[in-house]
Each structure stands twice: as structure tokens, then as C-alpha cells.
Design goal:
Helix 5 runs antiparallel to helix 10. The chain folds into two domains: 140 residues, Rossmann fold, CATH 3.40.50.720; 153 residues, Dihydrodipicolinate Reductase, domain 2 (2-Layer Sandwich). It has ten helices and 14 strands. Helix content is 33%, strand content 25%. It has 326 residues and is an alpha/beta fold. The strands form two sheets. An eight-stranded mixed sheet has the order 8-9-10-7-11-12-13-14, with helices on one face. A six-stranded parallel sheet has the order 3-2-1-4-5-6, sandwiched between helices. The protein is globular and about 55 Å long.
């Protein structure tokens, strides 16, 4: 492969700024086509982003001989379907997170990737962002001594689109998302901690529907352990009073602690015997740029990307065990 020519399946909101423009900013990469079931919206996206082609049929985009890599940015329920079709067509795949709606679908995606030899990547882009890399660096350089635990607290009120009883956003429909907002947001947090401490090896928890606003779980508590033996806790709720709003991740060690946000991109804070230090996030304009660059570099130059299908599938396994007990 001399150049990565991308097609996007599902050019919705996430592709407007977070990812879509980045495909044309990375050396050796170009966005050639987009697909959305609503052809008018696909055409509009193509015109606004100067994309040469648009489709309203995913199979036609996958069959396009001018495309050799596909970004699947649909809701999780169709990730496996489109990724598998693309890999069987010989097209490298970069799929949104969570990797799929179920762990079984993740395993099938990996099986097809192994069978076809076609690379499969997942958009856990926090593994490539400067602020999160600073957290990993601080841990590895011993600034908190020996890490003892990692804790997550993410709570907020429900959003208007989540409370729409007639047409709620897909993220609160388990048939589409795999679970609720927990699947959408906690997946990023659990994946990042796995990046720092190794894959999750055990997890137990409880998932409840306390708000009764939508069918998915809305409040989750969990305890977990990573490959290196470190343990952690997580508390998530997406139906709280505004006064309970919190977005905190912390790593506590024998000589200090690191406090940072999972989504607010507040400065990373280090507290140890030397006092208090602050590190800004400095995100790229398109937040997936660094990860997309890594994917392109692996495809063109065989430089390994830090987000693999195997590590991503482990996150699905963990969430499924907590929410469904499987």
C-alpha cells in the first residue's frame, strides 16, 4: 500500500470535526468517499468537506476499487457487520468505539481479521492524546511511587436528547449501543487505564436503571483488576442531580497521586512530595488526528498502532460482564 484512500461508513456528528477532517491532514492519507443512508445528508457532507464521492449504500462504498481502507462510524450494532464486509473485501478497517455492541461480535471481527490478514483498528484515541500520554509517563517515571489503585467517578444529569421518550438518542438503546451511556463513555476510561496498567483481567459490578428514563442501565458501580495486579473502582451515573456532576480519574500511589478528567480535558494534576504540578492537555484540532496518523503509519510503514482490536475487545468483555453478568 502506497497511499491510504479512505471511505467513511456513517458520516454523522462524530466525523464532522473529531475525525473526518483528519484523514486529509495525515501524510499518505486521503478521504475519498463517504456513505450515509440518507443520500442527501451524504452529499451535503461530501460537498462541505470536499470529498470526491458519496454513497447511500455501504456495500457500494466497500466495493469501490479506489478505496483501500474504511472507517466505520455507525452506531455499535452495525460495527461488526460493516467491518467484516470490509475486511472480506480486503479493506483495512478503523472502527469507532466501543468496538461492537457485544463481546461475541468483537471476537468474530478479530477472527475475520486473522483469517483474512486484513488489519483492524479501534478508535480509542485517548491512547494517543498528549494529556493522557502525560499521565502514563508520570506513572512510568515513578512520580507517584508504586501505583496502588485507579479510581473513576463520572456522574452527570441526563441530557435532553436522552429524555426524549418518543425518539431518544441511540446511545440509550441497548439494541443499538450494546448498553447505555456507560458503554459509550466508560469504554474510553477503561481502555485508557488498560493502556497504562495492562489488560483488565477481572471485573465485578452492578448496573441499575435508577432514573427509569430509558431502557438502558444508567447507574453503574464496579471493581476491577489489571494485568499488573493493580486494582480500581468505578462509579458512573447519568441521571444525577446537577449538584453531583463529576468527571474525575485518579491514580493513587505510595508517594503521590495523579488527578485528571476523562472528558473535560482539565489539566492533569500531579501531587507528591515535591508539591503540586499542572500539565495542560494540548489536544489536536481534530481529536482523532494522532490515532488516525498511527493507523496510517502502520498501514504504510508497519509502525505499530497503540490501539488494537484485541485490547478493544477486552473492554467490551469487561462492560458486558458488569452490565449483563456474562
Amino acid at each position: 500500500m502506497k497511499k491510504v484512500n479512505w471511505g467513511i461508513i456513517g458520516c454523522g456528528d462524530v466525523t464532522e470535526k473529531k475525525s473526518g477532517p483528519a484523514f486529509n491532514k495525515v501524510d499518505g492519507s486521503r478521504l475519498m468517499a463517504v456513505m450515509r443512508r440518507n443520500g442527501q445528508l451524504a452529499a451535503d457532507y461530501a460537498a462541505r468537506h470536499k470529498v470526491p464521492k458519496w454513497y447511500d449504500d455501504a456495500d457500494l462504498l466497500i466495493a469501490d476499487e479506489g478505496i483501500n481502507a474504511i472507517y466505520v462510524a455507525t452506531p455499535p450494532s452495525t460495527h461488526a457487520e460493516y467491518a467484516i464486509k470490509a475486511m472480506r473485501a480486503g479493506k483495512a478497517v478503523y472502527v469507532e468505539k466501543p468496538m461492537a455492541a457485544t463481546y461475541a461480535q468483537c471476537q468474530e471481527m478479530i477472527r475475520v481479521s486473522d483469517e483474512t490478514g486484513v488489519p483492524l483498528f479501534v478508535a480509542y484515541y485517548r491512547r494517543s492524546l498528549p494529556g493522557f500520554l502525560k499521565v502514563k509517563e508520570l506513572v512510568e517515571e515513578g512520580h507517584v511511587g508504586t501505583p496502588l489503585m485507579a479510581n473513576i467517578r463520572l456522574t452527570r444529569p441526563p441530557l435532553p436528547q436522552e429524555m426524549d421518550g418518543e425518539a431518544p438518542i441511540w446511545r440509550v438503546d441497548p439494541k443499538v449501543a450494546g448498553g447505555g451511556i456507560f458503554y459509550d463513555l466508560a469504554s474510553h476510561q477503561l481502555d485508557f487505564l488498560s493502556f497504562v496498567f495492562g489488560d483488565l483481567t477481572d471485573i465485578h459490578g452492578f448496573a441499575t436503571n435508577g432514573g427509569k428514563i430509558y431502557p438502558a442501565e444508567d447507574t453503574v458501580t464496579a471493581v476491577f483488576q489489571f494485568k499488573n495486579g493493580l486494582t480500581g473502582t468505578g462509579t458512573w451515573s447519568f441521571v444525577t442531580d446537577p449538584s453531583a456532576r463529576e468527571d474525575v480519574m485518579e491514580i493513587i500511589g505510595t508517594k503521590g497521586k495523579i488527578v485528571f478528567s476523562g472528558f473535560g480535558h482539565e489539566p492533569v494534576m500531579l501531587y507528591n512530595e515535591k508539591g503540586e504540578l499542572e500539565f495542560p492537555y494540548m489536544n489536536p484540532e481534530n481529536i482523532q488526528y494522532n490515532m488516525i496518523k498511527q493507523v496510517v503509519q502502520e498501514l504504510l510503514h508497519h509502525k505499530p498502532c497503540v490501539s488494537s482490536a484485541h485490547s478493544a475487545a477486552k473492554v467490551n468483555w469487561a462492560m458486558e460482564k458488569v452490565v449483563y453478568g456474562t
